[in-house]
Automatic annotation (TrEMBL):
Annotated GO MF terms: electron transfer activity; heme binding; metal ion binding
Classification via Pfam families: Ni_hydr_CYTB
TM stretches of this protein: 6-27, 39-62, 82-106, 143-162
Cofactor(s) annotated in UniProt: heme b
Cellular location(s): Cell membrane
Name of the protein in question: Cytochrome b561
Gene: cybB
One biological process term in Gene Ontology: respiratory electron transport chain
Superkingdom of origin: Bacteria
Length: 176
């Protein structure tokens, strides 16, 4: 059994990490941009969100087919259970967020763009549904900040406090 994740799993992990940063920044900083640039921020946000959805589903499928490399030294069952719960929350969050976002954009009933392409939309807007989806999307996005922070803190705790290989399993290999 391998000591770390496959190169593909590592690449997807860090690509999703970068896309999450860009996605969050597109929304957080759009208010500082000139008004005529804001639609570009929205396109970036939506395009990155859809890409995150595709990559998270791919990552989940790969994870279901590939064994997880062992943590050495082996953590307690309680820590293992918390890790599984944390990863479940991450997968659910970063699959649900883009789905909610796409459903929200679709149900607005107007033209919207992702990846520079026009996307399908409902023939008639359903603003009550859009408002509900937007509330869930924004709440989960805010929760995402805490989930990301806990995930990063857990990885650092494993590395510096528990002194196991959890963090190293997801780091790119050094080329010699």
């Amino acid at each position: 059994m391998r000591n770390n994740y496959s190169g593909l799993q590592i690449a997807i992990h860090w690509l999703v990490f970068l896309l999450v940063i860009v996605t969050y920044c597109a929304m957080e900083f759009r208010g500082f941009a000139p008004r005529d640039w804001r639609s570009s921020f929205n396109i970036v946000h939506v395009s990155c969100g859809i890409t995150i959805l595709i990559l998270m589903v791919a990552r989940l499928l790969i994870r279901l087919k590939s064994p997880t490399p062992p943590i050495v030294p082996k953590p307690s069952p309680a820590l293992t259970g918390l890790a599984h719960l944390g990863h479940l929350i991450i997968y659910l969050l970063f699959i649900a967020l883009p789905i909610l976002g796409v459903l929200m954009m679709y149900n607005r009933g107007g033209n919207w763009i992702a990846f520079g392409l026009p996307m399908p939309h409902a023939a008639e807007a359903n603003f009550d549904l859009v408002d509900t989806l937007k509330a869930y999307h924004e709440t989960l996005a805010m929760l995402g900040y805490y989930v990301i922070a806990l995930h990063a803190l857990a990885a650092l705790a494993h590395h510096y406090f528990f002194k196991d290989n959890t963090l190293l399993r997801m780091m790119p290999k050094k080329r010699v």
